[in-house]
Amino acid sequence: MPRHHKEEQTLVLIKPDALQRHLLGDIIHRFERKGLNIIGLKMLFMDEKMMHAHYGKYADKPFFKGLTGHMSKSPIVAMAVSGIRAVSVTRLLVGQTKGYEAAPGTIRGDFALSIQSNLVHASDPDENPQEEIQRFFKAEELFNYQRLDFDLLYGEEELE
Q1: Catalytic residue chosen out of the listed positions 4, 5, 70, 121
Q2: Active-site residue 121, yes or no?
Q3: What is the pTM of this model?
């Protein structure tokens, strides 16, 4: 659970194309620099069961086979982050789904040109970010702590 009542948690998946292009450090650094807490981090291969649990809503779409094939090319890095408004902040950092439409300064805007090879997945606020986190992390794999600079990152109005 988040330490502060306004804190949220969300999931980021750093996809195979990001690992293959050696962008892992650059991507993680963006979340740290923004001020979000990394509360869980691990590398794994997504098996077929996990792929269907995570992307099952797209199973009847023509791009599903390509998506699952892409996601199984190499390991991914699952990252859980927390902070005040973490879900929306993460979506802004990541950028538009289509890399070629993503704004400069976003992860996809700076590094991606594709829809499928768009480097990262970020939980959608309309879906359940907490459920997505639980799909990739056991409770004991998540670490809640307050950053030493927490009071410098947020104004008093965000903390009330």
Answers
A1: 121
A2: yes
A3: 0.91
